Amino acid sequence: REMEEKVTLLNGPNKRPRSSTMNEAPIAVVTSRTSEVYVWGGGKSTPQKLDAIKSGCSARQVCAGNTHFAVVTVEKELYTWVNMQGGTKLHGQLGHGDRASYRQPKHVEKLQGKAIRQVSCGDDFTVCITDEGQVYAFGSDYYGCIGIDKAYGSEVLEPLQLDFFLTNPVEQVSCGDN
Question: Reduced to 3 states, what is the DSSP secondary structure of residue 64?
Fold first, then answer.
């Protein structure tokens, strides 16, 4: 009930949610008129405005995984960062080529030049699609959840394109737990 009241508070006349997502972990909300990103959870019960995305960029879509957040900007760039309070091992779900815990949004450089349309976060992995319907995935593939045969059971630290969708463009992606 308390969380519902806080969401209602954010939904004032000048702040209507455009895109939001919720997992068991923290939640993120994008507002339509101002494209601001608010995050809460992970020990913070009050929505906090996030100012750390590159200056001049506006959020278009957000997603919250169990251990991380992802934002697609209006400029169609992807940013990721951790949402946990520490103690959780990262498996490459941020897509930066390492297992570092970036606590502020960081541009996923490997996708530079790709027009990212949508992102979805699983427990320890991330999947995004481009305007052309191509699919990129990264993070834990311990259960085969990112769909890359050569990566099954391993960690993918940078975005890899799923070849299957080269001839089968994708419209939307949604990830679950594992």
Answer: strand
